[in-house]
Specification:
The chain is an alpha+beta fold and about 400 residues long. The chain has 3 domains: about 120 residues, Orthogonal Bundle (Butyryl-Coa Dehydrogenase, subunit A, domain 1); about 110 residues, Butyryl-CoA Dehydrogenase, subunit A, domain 2 (Beta Barrel); about 140 residues, Butyryl-CoA Dehydrogenase, subunit A, domain 3. It is built from 11 helices and 9 strands. The radius of gyration is 22 Å and the shape is globular. The N and C termini lie far apart (about 60 Å). The model has no long low-confidence stretch (mean pLDDT about 90). Bound molecules: flavin-adenine dinucleotide (FAD). Flavin-adenine dinucleotide binds next to strand 3, strand 5, helix 10 and helix 11.
Length: about 400
C-alpha cells in the first residue's frame, strides 16, 4: 500500500486500481532509489543503444501482458478501457520505480492517437494491439534533406502499381530507424497538386527489400538517428492511413502529439531542479545571488511546464483538444532546458564540460541535449510560427507555393 498523499482523495475504485498498479510495479520493476539521479542515457556504441532500445521494448511488452499498456485505449484493441485518472494514478505510482519504455513510448504517444483518429476499424484492430505491445516498434520517416520545417515540401516519390506503391527517395534524422521493425512514412503520391494535397501516409515493414538505414553520429557520441534510403520499396496500398493524397491530416496529428509528448516528457523524468540545487550545494554556490536567481527562475518554469504538460496529456488521453497549444508546451520546455544547461555549466565551471565522472557527463548532456530538443519535433522558430497563427490568430506567413503544383515549385 502506498503512503503517498495522492491516495487520500481516491475513490474506492481508484484505490483498488492504485493498489493493483503498485503490486504490478513491485513485482516487475526496480525501485527508483537504486538508480543514480545523475545517470544519463547516452549510448556510444550501437550495441549499447540497441540493448537500451530492446529493454524499453521489453518493458512495454510487460506492461501489455499485465494489462497496464494503453490504459485509456479500448479493451478490444489491447488497452484497459480506462480513463485519464487511470493514467494519472499509474504515473504517480510509477514515479517511485525505474520504469521506461524508452523510444517506443514516443511512437505510441504519436501514432496511437493518429490510428484512433484516421485509421479504419480493420487497421486499428491490426495495428493498435501490436503498437501497444511493442511487437511493432515504429520509427518516424518524415524529414528529408530538403524538407524539415517545410515538411509538406517532401519529395520521396510513390508511384502506384496495382495494389502497391513503389517508393523511392531519402529520409533523414529518423530516430531509432536502425532498430525499429516498422515505420510511418510520408510520400509524394501526386506531384501535380499543391504540396499539402499530394502526400500519403503509409505504414511500412522495415524489412521490405530496398530500405537501408544508416546511423548518423551526434556530438554526444551517440548515433540514435539515421539517414534512410528507399529504392523501389513496394508498400501495399492497404497500408495507407487516411486518404491517398490526404496524408497531411494524419501527419499533423502525429506532429501535434509529438510536441505534447516532448513537452510532457519533462513531467515524467521528475524534474531537473533537485539536481541543479544539489550541484549548487556541492560547489558551495547555493547562496550565490546569480545562481539563486537562476535556480528560482528554473524552478518556476519547471512547475509551469509540469502543470501545462499534465493538462495537455490528460486531454490527449481522453482524445480531446488540448487546453494549451502543444507548441507552447514544447517551446516552454525547450527554453527551460536551455536555462538548465546554462545554469549547470555556470555552477560547475569549465571543468564541468571536460570531466568524465557521472556528474560531469550529466552536465555535458544538459548542455548538448538542448539542441536536439529545440530542433526535434519542430524547431523553436516553427513552434513560434504555429503559435502566432493557431493560438494568436495572427496573419499567416506569406507563402509563394501555396496554390502551385508541387512539381512546379523551385527546389535547390
Ligand atoms: C533529436 C532529433 C530527433 C529527430 N527525429 C526525427 C524522426 O524520428 N523522424 C523524422 O522524420 N525527423 C526527425 N527529426 C528531424 C526534425 O524534425 C527536423 O530536424 C526539424 O523539423 C527541422 O528540420 P531541418 O533539420 O531540415 O531544418 P530546417 O527546416 O532546414 O531549418 C533550419 C533553420 O531555419 C529555421 N526555419 C525554417 N523555416 C522557418 C520559418 N518558416 N520561419 C522561421 N524559421 C525557420 C529553423 O527554425 C532552423 O533554425 C529529428 C531531429 C532531431 C534534432
Amino acid at each position: 500500500m502506498t503512503t503517498d498523499a495522492t491516495s487520500v482523495t481516491d475513490t474506492p475504485e481508484q484505490a483498488e486500481f492504485r493498489a493493483a498498479a503498485r503490486a504490478f510495479l513491485e513485482a516487475h520493476a526496480k525501485p527508483r532509489q537504486q538508480v543514480s539521479p545523475w545517470a544519463v542515457t547516452v549510448h556510444r556504441s550501437q550495441d549499447a543503444a540497441r540493448a537500451a532500445f530492446e529493454r524499453g521494448r521489453a518493458w512495454q511488452k510487460t506492461l501489455f501482458e499485465n494489462g497496464f499498456a494503453g490504459l485509456t485505449y479500448p479493451v478490444e484493441l489491447g488497452g484497459r478501457g480506462g480513463s485519464a485518472w487511470h493514467e494519472r494514478i499509474y504515473n504517480e505510482e510509477a514515479r517511485s520505480f525505474d520504469t521506461s519504455s524508452g523510444f517506443v513510448s514516443a511512437t505510441i504517444a504519436m501514432l496511437g492517437p493518429t490510428l484512433m483518429k484516421h485509421a479504419t476499424p480493420e487497421q486499428q484492430a491490426l495495428y493498435v494491439p501490436k503498437l501497444l505491445s511493442a511487437e511493432y516498434a515504429f520509427c518516424q520517416l518524415f524529414s528529408e534533406p530538403g524538407a524539415g520545417s517545410d515538411l509538406a515540401g517532401l519529395a520521396c516519390r510513390a508511384v502506384r502499381d496495382g495494389d502497391e506503391f513503389v517508393v523511392t527517395g531519402q529520409k533523414v534524422w529518423n530516430s531509432a530507424a536502425q532498430f525499429c521493425n516498422w515505420g510511418m512514412i510520408l510520400v509524394r503520391t501526386n506531384p501535380d497538386v499543391p504540396k499539402h494535397r499530394g502526400i500519403t501516409f503509409l505504414l511500412v515493414d522495415m524489412s521490405t527489400p530496398g530500405i537501408e538505414a544508416r546511423p548518423l553520429v551526434q556530438p554526444t557520441g551517440g548515433s540514435e538517428f539515421n539517414e534512410v534510403f528507399l529504392e523501389e520499396v513496394r508498400i501495399p496500398v492497404a497500408n495507407v492511413i487516411g486518404e491517398i493524397d490526404g496524408g497531411w491530416a494524419p501527419a499533423r496529428t502525429v506532429l501535434s502529439n509529438e510536441s505534447a509528448f516532448i513537452g510532457g516528457g519533462s513531467v515524467a523524468v521528475g524534474g531537473r531542479y533537485p539536481r541543479l540545487l544539489e550541484l549548487a550545494e556541492m560547489h558551495g554556490k547555493r547562496d550565490d545571488p546569480t545562481v539563486r536567481q537562476g535556480l528560482a527562475d528554473f524552478y518556476m518554469r519547471e512547475r509551469i511546464v509540469a502543470v501545462m504538460g499534465e493538462r495537455i496529456m490528460a486531454a490527449v488521453r481522453q482524445r480531446q483538444m488540448p487546453p494549451v497549444d502543444p507548441s507552447a508546451l514544447k517551446l516552454f520546455t525547450t527554453e527551460s532546458r536551455v536555462r538548465s544547461g546554462n545554469l549547470a555549466v555556470a555552477i560547475r565551471g569549465a571543468d564541468g564540460l571536460v570531466g568524465d565522472d557521472e556528474i560531469a557527463i550529466w552536465t555535458q548532456m544538459e548542455l548538448l541535449g538542448r539542441f536536439s530538443i529545440s530542433i526535434g519535433g519542430g524547431t523553436n522558430e516553427v513552434q513560434k510560427n504555429n503559435l502566432a497563427e493557431r493560438a494568436l490568430g495572427l496573419p499567416r506567413e506569406p507563402r509563394t507555393d501555396h496554390e502551385i503544383a508541387w512539381k512546379d515549385v523551385p527546389r535547390s
